[in-house]
Design a protein that fits this description.
alpha/beta, three-stranded antiparallel sheet, 19 helices, globular
Length: about 525
């Protein structure tokens, strides 16, 4: 193939060059064919791609097809309910609510209601009138030691850093949060000017890199923390232990991305790799973690302090609860992230195969807190593929007090699920630092869409609660949601995830299934207490 192409190219080129001296059309033909001949010669001489080397020019069609495949599949092949991670039905309802256009569906559901995994709400024969409902339900976050409790919406913007998202996207999200009266989580990348200038309420997330509150050696800087935590926009502080996209995994911010602006925001050195370790260096035991929480609460002037995790080894969370009991120090909130969550780039194995899914993690955390008699002091935030009112209601039923959404908020900004978040080529300007691409995202237009999506989604959740005869999210419980577990069998969430009674974990004998983790957990260590 290669020798044939070379011989053919040489003959064609020779004929065209000679004839071009006598025939003008041949010169034009040379102009068209010469680039193809040169590309073909390059394909033959390069040694990185066997397909191109063996089949010059034609081998390149594979790369074109690979580039076109996701676009053709999304727009011409996939059904309304088969796309992933968000199908077209889900994306459409976010777009419609963001634009405040008709979001109803005709001719019945497209879902197979007899398929295993199908879920529905147990409604009431005597639903509540909508005019009696609180259309903007809020939750007060702040335990006994909190001096500045925060009244939060039941739906907020989940953690997404500046750097992962563009400055225009960050500004639109924060301006939308201000417009709609909800909170915006900064992500672990630190407090940027784009988070602050729009005036929306912020949840400042502090990850293992301590960006915005770190010393040059990467350790925690309490003075820098106190300075930023005092900002009026900062309403709560969240310590990130792990995230759903890549739990237990650190990261490196490459030197080329550490611009002068990023270095100033994150308190790092410009032009050098920045390590974000997989674990915290400010504490190494559950008791030290509680002491760290108390210190941050003191330095912030008594603002709510919480932590975020994707549940992994159960005995480690039990150890944290034991540390709460032993020290008398408790977080004001806990954010439970599901293994299905995540807006940023992550290794495939971590994204697909590490971390407990949201439903399982949420019920475990609620039951654990209740079993230790701690739940009344701590609010639970659910985060992981939240995009409809039914998602809110399901999470409330499982024990969440409020929810965070990330990818749904990106869709409200105009994200088309191009799946290019990790390549800096996001065509809608949401997940890119390319100035040309982000300039197409108009902050004034998109902030309204973010606020609209929030309002309409909360409204749909309130309508569902009214249909179930429930006045407030606090009154929802696991028996309200049914799930098909086989073609001829259904269960409520309360049957799938049986409740632990309050105080069940305070002394032996412990409930069935909890014995091993209770015996192997200690407030003094994150490791197995028995060394097993």
């Amino acid at each position: 193939m290669r020798s044939t192409f070379l011989l053919f190219s040489f003959l064609v080129l020779a004929v065209i060059v000679v004839s071009s001296f006598f025939w003008t059309p041949a010169l034009w033909f040379l102009t068209v064919t010469l680039p193809f001949i040169l590309v073909g010669v390059y394909d033959i001489t390069q040694k990185q791609h066997t397909l191109m080397r063996n089949f010059p020019l034609m081998g390149r069609m594979r790369w074109t097809a690979e580039w076109l495949r996701p676009k053709i599949y999304q727009y011409f092949i996939e059904s309304d309910i088969s796309g992933a991670p968000y199908n077209r039905l889900s994306r459409s309802v976010v777009y419609q609510r963001a634009k405040k256009v008709n979001d109803t569906t005709p001719f019945g559901t497209q879902l197979n209601v007899y398929e295993t995994g199908y879920e529905w709400l147990n409604h009431s024969i005597s639903p509540l009138p909508m005019h009696t409902m609180d259309h903007h339900p809020r939750v007060t976050i702040g335990g006994p030691d909190c001096k500045q409790p925060y009244s939060a919406s039941v739906l907020n913007v989940s953690a997404m850093s500046y750097g992962a998202l563009s400055q225009n996207a960050i500004m639109a999200l924060n301006a939308g949060a201000k417009l709609g009266g909800f909170a915006h989580n900064t992500g672990e990348g630190g407090l940027s000017p784009y988070h602050l200038q729009q005036g929306g309420d912020l949840i400042w997330q502090i990850g293992t890199g301590y960006f915005g509150c770190r010393n040059p050696d990467g350790t925690f800087n309490y003075d820098s923390f106190a300075e930023r935590a005092a900002l009026p926009n900062v309403k709560m502080i969240e310590i990130k232990l792990s995230q759903g996209a890549k739990p237990g995994h650190g990261g490196i911010l490459p030197a080329k991305k550490v611009t002068e602006e990023i270095a100033k925001i994150r308190l790092v050195e410009k032009g050098k790799d920045v390590l974000s370790p997989p674990y915290h260096t400010a504490f190494s035991t559950p008791i030290e973690m509680m002491q760290f929480i108390a210190k941050l609460r003191e330095l912030s002037g008594g603002k709510p302090i919480g932590f975020k995790l994707c549940v992994g080894r159960k005995f480690q969370f039990i150890a944290i609860c034991k540390a709460m009991i032993k020290t008398g120090i408790m977080p004001d909130f806990i954010t439970v992230d599901g293994g299905e969550g995540g807006t940023g780039a992550a290794p495939l194995e971590f994204s697909n195969s590490v971390g407990m899914p949201l439903r399982d993690g949420l019920t475990f955390v609620y039951d654990c807190l209740n079993g230790f008699g701690l739940k009344r002091h701590i609010k639970i935030i659910a985060s992981g593929k939240v995009h409809t009112g039914f998602d809110l209601v399901k999470n409330f039923s499982l024990g969440a007090d409020l929810c965070n959404a990330a990818r749904a908020m990106m869709l409200a900004l105009g994200c088309i699920q191009a799946l290019e978040c990790n390549s800096n080529t996001c065509p809608t300007g949401v997940a890119t630092q390319d100035k040309k691409l982000m300039s197409g995202l108009d902050v004034n237009d998109k902030k309204v869409r973010v606020a609209n999506f929030h309002h309409e989604t909360v409204k749909s959740a309130v309508e569902l609660m009214a249909a179930a005869g429930v006045k407030h999210p606090d009154l929802l419980h696991r028996s309200f949601i049914y799930r098909r577990i086989s073609p001829g069998s259904i269960q409520t969430y309360s049957e799938t995830y049986p409740y632990l009674m309050k105080g069940d974990l305070l002394e032996a004998p412990f409930p069935t299934g909890w014995e091993f983790d209770m015996m192997n957990s200690s407030a003094e260590t994150f490791n197995h207490a028995t060394g097993f």
